[in-house]
Design goal:
The chain is of the alpha+beta class and 365 residues long. Helix content is 31%, strand content 12%. It has helices spanning 32-35, 37-67, 82-108, 126-143, 149-161, 163-170, 239-249; strands spanning 5-7, 13-15, 197-199, 216-221, 251-255, 280-284, 296-298, 303-305, 312-314, 320-323, 335-337, 343-345. It is elongated and about 110 Å long.
Length: 365
C-alpha cells in the first residue's frame, strides 16, 4: 500500500482524495412574513387572536366553575358531568391557545437566522459568556417583544388570567374553617344539660365508679348518638359531619390516684384542680404533632405514647410533652358529674385540638 493509493476488496486501487469539503448551509429562504409587511401584520393578528382566545377560555372556566354544579342531572357525551367537562375543556383550551400563539410567534415573526457553534469545553470562556448574554439580548430584540406591544400585552394578559383558575380551585380544598378549629361539639352542651361522656362505639354513659385505678377508656360526646338531647339537628352529626366531629372530639379518660395529679393552670391562669373527678382526667386523643390517634398507656407513669412518632405525654401533669417531636401538651377537657352521677364535660377543650396552625397561640400550663 502506498501513501497515494489503497486497495479495494476486489483488488483494484483507489486514489486518496483527502478530506471532504464542508458543504455549508443552503441558501437562506426568507419567510413570507420577512418580505411582505401585509403578511407580517396578518401573522401578528393571528398570534394576538390565539392569546385572546386563551383569555376567553379562562373566563369560560370561571363562568363554568360558578354556574355549573357537580352532580347536575344533565350530562354530555360519554356520561361525563357537565361541570367536569366544561372545566376541563376550558382550562385545556386556555393552555393550548397560549402554546399555539407562542409557536406561531416564533415561526413567523421572531428572528430567522441559522447559527452554528464549534464544540467548546464545559465551562465557556468569559468572552463566550459575554457573547451569550449579547445573543440573548439580541434574541429579545429580534423577538420583537419591545416593538410589538400588542402581542406582548395580549400574552401577559392571557398568562395573568391563568392565575385565576388556580385561585378559585383552592376553594375546593374544603370549606373555610372560620373558628371551627378552636371549638368542638363538646362546647355545645346546654347550660342546664352538660354533655355526657360515653364509651366509644357502645355509647353508654360512664360513672366514676365504673373506672378503676389505671383504667384507660376511649370516649366520645353523647351528642353524636343523642343529638336531640342537646337541641342539635341530627343532620349536623351524620355522614361526613359525624366523622369531623368524632375526629375533633375523641377523648381519653384515665383514672389515677388523686394525689398523683399535678394541677396546672388554664389559659386564664386559674388552677385546674377542679378539672378532675375522683382522680379521673380527660384529654384529647389526637396527638399535637401530626394528629395521630393515641392510646398506648403506661400505667405506672401515667404516660401516654403516640405510636406514630413516639411523642409521649404526661397525663398526670397537664398532658405535657416528656419525649418526642410534639410541641404542645394534649388539650385537657374539664370534667364534672351530672344529676345522675354520670361524667360530663364542664366545657369545651381549653385550646384547639390536633397539630399546630399559624394562628394558634400557646400558653404555659
Amino acid at each position: 500500500m502506498s501513501d497515494a493509493h489503497t486497495t479495494d476488496p476486489h483488488g483494484g486501487e483507489l486514489a486518496v482524495t483527502g478530506p471532504i469539503a464542508d458543504p455549508g448551509l443552503p441558501e437562506h429562504q426568507w419567510r413570507p412574513t420577512d418580505v411582505d409587511p401585509a403578511k407580517e401584520k396578518r401573522a401578528e393578528r393571528q398570534v394576538v387572536g390565539f392569546f385572546l382566545l386563551s383569555a376567553l377560555s379562562t373566563v369560560a372556566f370561571l363562568v363554568a366553575y360558578f354556574t355549573l354544579k357537580i352532580g347536575d342531572n344533565w350530562h354530555v357525551i360519554g356520561g361525563f358531568g357537565a361541570s367536569n367537562m366544561a372545566l376541563g375543556l376550558s382550562l385545556g383550551l386556555a393552555l393550548l391557545f397560549i402554546g399555539v400563539g407562542i409557536i406561531q410567534w416564533a415561526r413567523k415573526l421572531m428572528g430567522d437566522h441559522e447559527m452554528t457553534e464549534m464544540r467548546h469545553p464545559a465551562r465557556s470562556s468569559d468572552e463566550d459568556r459575554e457573547t451569550t448574554l449579547q445573543a440573548l439580548s439580541d434574541g429579545l430584540e429580534e423577538s420583537g417583544i419591545a416593538r410589538r406591544p400588542l402581542i406582548r400585552n395580549s400574552l401577559l394578559g392571557a398568562v395573568g388570567l391563568l392565575g385565576l383558575p388556580a385561585v378559585v380551585l383552592l376553594r375546593d380544598l374544603g370549606p373555610l374553617p372560620g373558628d371551627a378549629l378552636y371549638h368542638t361539639i363538646w362546647g355545645r352542651g346546654l347550660p342546664n344539660r352538660p354533655m355526657r361522656i360515653v364509651r366509644d362505639g357502645i355509647w353508654t354513659p360512664i360513672l366514676p365508679s365504673d373506672l378503676e385505678i389505671g383504667d384507660l377508656v376511649n370516649a366520645q360526646p353523647d351528642a353524636l348518638h343523642n343529638p336531640e338531647r342537646y337541641d342539635i339537628d341530627p343532620a349536623d352529626v351524620e355522614g361526613i359531619e359525624l366523622q369531623v366531629h368524632k375526629s375533633k372530639a375523641s377523648l381519653i379518660l384515665l383514672r389515677m390516684q388523686p394525689e398523683d395529679i399535678k394541677h396546672g393552670k388554664d389559659k386564664d391562669g386559674q388552677s385546674r384542680e377542679n378539672w378532675a373527678v375522683d382522680g379521673i382526667v380527660a384529654y384529647s386523643k389526637i396527638c399535637t404533632h401530626v394528629g395521630c390517634p393515641i392510646s398506648l398507656n403506661e400505667r405506672t407513669t401515667h404516660h401516654l405514647l403516640c405510636p406514630c412518632h413516639q411523642s409521649t405525654f404526661d397525663l398526670a401533669d397537664s398532658g405535657k410533652v416528656v419525649f418526642g417531636p410534639a410541641g404542645r401538651p394534649l388539650p385537657q377537657l374539664p370534667l364534672a358529674v351530672d344529676d345522675e352521677g354520670y361524667l360530663v364535660a364542664a366545657s369545651d377543650f381549653d385550646e384547639p385540638v390536633g397539630p399546630s396552625f399559624w394562628e394558634r397561640d400557646y400558653y404555659e400550663r
